[in-house]
């Protein structure tokens, strides 16, 4: 047997060493990778997590905007995003095609539902990537987003292959052009990280964008390359946090009343613009706010003309509505003398002439009648009695020339002119100086709220919807007390007489069953091109600042109509009255404020007026529909006729005798009986000629009787002459209907 011998093979040994070394090196590397946390500056754990980690973003809803009764004004609602699968590989292993098979037909159908033309859709469906490959799917930009559920169903009925819908949200404004310049709007914008985010661009949507914007959430997990969840992997959820809900002081019902009324007037009179505010005078809460032109926040059609919230971001010359505060200043400072007389028609300030709106005035009239007729010269005379310093002090108390502090951005202050004497006089009747509508509303709260002036506000509260926690809770703020409670009551009664008196400029603003107090305004509009002011009844800013009911005002309202297209026989108070009456009457009934009882027989029982102030009683009687006649200078009443507890018909004359010099009234139209009563009370030497009703008198009205010369009063029967027709005019000198 042959004995084997070991032979050393050098080549094989070298190969063993080489491959053995490589194996050891690889083994060492594997061990190192398994035990080391970082290699070549890379975190192996992070790299592994990145390879298998998946994250799904959870969208957060934008906060809602609601009215005081939880009615939605703005919210995010379910919508859909249109996506088209265009790569034919998607249909592999599928019995039916799941990609777009016919791009031309698909484009033709989609063009009927989205705002994109057919050719552009076709180009998107057939577009190639930069390397020539076909993308898996395509989208259609803004036109393919915010698809409504109804539109989605309509598209799906066509059975288009490759068309799919992904869930999305859109900002929804269910009420259309509802307080649009206050609410504003929000739109989607692409962010730097390529995400899409809804951003407020105007109004409350812009001002409170941070509070309304939610925080997106996410779901993190580990999966294989096909997206399946790996065993034992943890699923981490960071929930989305929706934006805060903002509750407004607005009342949807009252806002609807206002929008409907303004839309009707806008169509009928086609004004250049309109502005209106309704507020609760006891709290300062804004219940409704609107303007024309307006727009729908959903599509912003109509927004091109004006982005400003006219109630706070624009100033106006207030016109005669400012007389409300001139009157309040005079009453509160002890400079109101309602029965004192002034010469109407013209008032001269150095070389400047101030005229009444009818250019000629009404002769020598009382200050009370001056308020009722809205006399500019009456305000000028009242200012000279009160003093400009006192007047401007009260304007400061009422907040003019200052921001109201309302919780809205962009508020302006207006300018109170005072450099020249004529500026002070014109400011007293609302010309030259400027204010905002919101300042007028704030000032009016003091008149309606027994002297307490309330700061206007529109945000009631801000609430975290996930927890119900109130983040912000606004409360009424008393800004001051510019006048006393007694002054406020007296001003209300005087302003009520502008509605009830046959001389009043606000007769059109009377409501059935509710007593209204307020002041009309007819402001000239500055000509921005040629200087001065526009002329003609179609070139004024007509307004009304009023409240109801007078005894305990629940609502105040400002309405202004700029440059309405009035017919030949129409006057400026008609469009403003149409809005005011519709909104105020419906809103009072909505608040269950019962109308005053109407008596079957229109009789009024007289109270005991003796020893009371004739001026106060005078206003009270006017508001009751009676005609007071003061016999004497005014002051304490020493005798009345008819006596207390006497029932008299509406329109009857009530005589109030006081001490002092007697100023003769107009007897025109009086009955013989009333002339005899006046003669007995006054003791004047009145000689009566004829029968029936007074046709003429030898001594003019407003004459102070100083001697004992006889006063001849001639009467005629209806058969002998027609009853005299006395024209009442509004602030434009236009004839008002007779009562």
List keywords for this structure.
739 residues, Penicillin-binding protein 2a (Domain 2), Beta-lactamase, Trypsin Inhibitor V, Chain A, 3 domains, 20 helices, 33 strands, membrane, PBP_dimer, EC 3.4.16.4, transmembrane helix, serine-type D-Ala-D-Ala carboxypeptidase
Whole-number total of structural domains: 3
Low-confidence stretches: 721-730, 732-739
The CATH first-level class of the largest domain comes to: Alpha Beta
Q: What Rg do the Cα atoms give?
A: 40 Å
**What class would the helix/strand composition place it in?**
alpha+beta
CATH architecture term of the largest domain: 3-Layer(aba) Sandwich
Q: What can be said about the biggest beta sheet?
A: 7 strands, mixed
Calculate the terminal CA-CA distance, rounded to whole Å.
154 Å
EC number: 3.4.16.4
Catalytic activity: Preferential cleavage: (Ac)2-L-Lys-D-Ala-|-D-Ala. Also transpeptidation of peptidyl-alanyl moieties that are N-acyl substituents of D-alanine
Family: Belongs to the transpeptidase family.
Protein name: serine-type D-Ala-D-Ala carboxypeptidase
